[in-house]
Each structure stands twice: as structure tokens, then as C-alpha cells.
Amino acid sequence: MTEAINEPVLLRRDDGRVAILTLNRPKAMNALSGELIDALQAEFDKLARDREIRCVVIEAAGRAFSSGHDLREVRSSDDYGFHHDLLTRCSTMMMSIRRLPQPVIAKVHAIATAAGCQLVAACDLAVASTDARFATPGVNIGLFCGTPSVPLGRNVGSKRALDMLFTGEPIDAESALRDGLVSRVVPPAELDSTTMAVARTIAGKSPLVLAQGKELFHKHMEMDVEKAYAYATAYMAGAIKREDAKLGIDAFVNKRGLPEWTGR
Q: CA neighbours within 13 Å on the CB side: how many for 49?
């Protein structure tokens, strides 16, 4: 679908130490076109180098969070190379969320399907409105949601993921919360304030702790329990020696407020 003249497909605004990215293809239900995928990637590349921003929120304009890949764009070519390149760029963009030093929160006000559901699952946290719905409906058009199944299965487990993938049926926000796809569910009127409250709370923490803790968590989740404990033990033993840990422990022991974090 043609975008409005000069209207960017992705918007960014900063609220203190929180960066807010807005998917801005409302007439196309924020379908992840190649242009939007590339715009997200460009922002993630900038954020990876940004030491001022400590949390990222992804939201969307219009009546949908995201309907997934832009099927008009997909249908525009029968070339394997075209499709492989598009999907590779999308997968790289999703992985960039995991690799960002900042925690990333999806703010989901409405439906998120296929690669849109994948985007929610790829984020570290997700706050959803009670109006939100989630689905991987590729099976309904003869196309199994293969790439969305990667983070979805790691969020909700194989049985729940395959139920969504095999049936294509949507689940509501409460089911998504129960299954682990989202972290909080709130009434629509509270979605913005709750999301920003979570983001600002996170942004008040040590950036070093956030970055290293995020990396630690994702790494140990791929290990068996014994290796995970060994890895986490070594991390914590080293982290105790860092300046931010010393400042934080000293403030707690002496009943003072949070220190000014150094990032060291």
C-alpha cells in the first residue's frame, strides 16, 4: 500500500532516557514492509551505540499493532532470492532487538499477527491492552508461520505455540499473559501510562547492569541448568567488583536512595 506523501514509516521520539519507536503504516495495518524493516534496523543500529537511552518502547499507530509481512510486497515477486533477502532482513532486525543493550518493550494496543506477533515475541517485555489479540494465521493462507514460530515457541512453549501455528486462531490478551507471550495486561486507558511507568523504572537502573543482565539471561536460557548456573555464578562474582554494584550495595546497607549510576 502506498504511504502518504513524505510520511515516514517509522517515527521516533525520546522521553528522557526512553526511546519510543512508532510503527507508522496505519492504512496498511503496520505491515512489515521491507522499508519498515530497514527503518527499524537503522534505529536499532543507532540505539546500540547510544549510551543515553536505557529503554526502548515499540508502539504502533492506527487500528493494528502489526498484521505481519506486507503480502502485497511478498506477492510482487516469485523470485526465491527476493523472498529470502526480505525474510533475512526481517530475522536480522528481530535478532537486533535481542542484541540491543537496552531492554525493549512492545506496547500492544490491538491485533498483532504473523510477523507482528513475532515482533511482540522478540521484545524483552510486552505490555498489552485488554483489546489486543495475537495470532500466527499463516496456515490459513497456505503458508506456515515459520519465522514467527522461532520467538513464539521460546516464549510460550511448544504445545501452545503449535496450537496457534496449526489452527491460526487468535488468542486474547489474558491468554497471552497466561502463556508468557506478554508480561502485563491493562485496560486500554492505562496502556500508555503503564508502559511508560515500566520503561522509566527500567531507565532508572544502571545501564551496565541492564546490558549485561539482558545478555546473561538470553545466553543462559540456551544452556542446560548446570552450565547456566556456572555461567551465572561467574558473572555475579565478577559483577560484585564493579563500581555500580559497590555503589548500590553501599547505598542499600546505609539506607540511602539509589546512587547516580556510573555505568562502570
A: 5
Task: Kindly state the cell numbers that stand for 230.
Answer: 556456572
DSSP state of 225: H
CA–CA dist 152, 176 (Å, integer) = 11
How far apart CA 196 and CA 213 sit, in angstroms, is: 21
Per the CB < 8 A criterion, the answer to whether 107 and 131 are in contact is no
- The Cα–Cα gap between 256 and 209 comes to 19
Q: Are 32 and 68 in contact (CB under 8 A)?
A: yes
* Nearest to 31, CA basis, from 122, 98, 115, 124: 115
pTM of this prediction?
0.92
DSSP three-state, residue 258? coil
- Residue 1 pLDDT class (50, 70, 90 cuts): very low
180 by DSSP, 3-state: which? Answer: coil
Grid cell digits, residue 219: 545466553
Measure the CA–CA gap between 15 and 135, rounded to whole angstroms: 31
Q: How far apart are CA 115 and CA 208, in angstroms?
A: 31
